Amino acid sequence: MSAVPFAASQVLILPGWGGPQSGHWTVQWPQLHGHTLVDQHDWHSPLRGDWLMGLEEAVLARSGPLVLAADGLACLMVAAWASISRQAQRVVGALLVQPMAIDGEHWQARLPSWSPVVLQRLPFPSTLVAAADSSAARLWAPAWGSRCLAQAIGEPAWPQGQALLREFIKD
Fold it and tell me: What gap in Å lies between CA 67 and CA 79, rounded to an integer?
């Protein structure tokens, strides 16, 4: 992977369903490292189109290269956004953390606009981090062209995740 120099604010933190939670890495990283937390419309009953527009607006508000760090449902948003946005070429890498499996009846009823999951190769390098038994990761990582790592996300600062993110960044 080639790394590029840029400001910490060029890392966009994309929380998943339910939004940023106190003590979670998506909240800690902006505070600790100066990354930009992207706010979305309706964290509990999100429409995919609304979230795609939110990401597009966040990208357009910045110049230069970007790195995305997505959690849960936001991983699915990144895949959908990358398949339609002309701005995807500005992304130099994405960290996709524990993509949310939405194939069960419960989630299909609650998040109908999120199906089907976009399963095409991302136009930028990506690393997918999930539990070893994640069926979603086993399916989606190859489809997205992502390097797949089995790793537990324990502490809020998650330094191992920062190390993975830094693979896309050169100071």
Answer: 14
Q: Does pTM top 0.90 for this prediction?
A: yes
Residue 23 lies in domain: 4-170
**Residue 135, Cβ neighbours under 10 Å: how many?**
11
DSSP annotation of 101: P
At 101, which CATH number?
Answer: 3.40.50.1820
Burial class (CB in 10 A: 0-12, 13-18, 19+), 53: middle
Q: Which residue has the tokens 């990208």?
A: 59
Specify the number of domains making up the chain. Answer: 1
Please determine, for residue 9, whether its predicted confidence score (pLDDT) is greater than 80. no
Pair of tokens at residue 165 = 């993110």
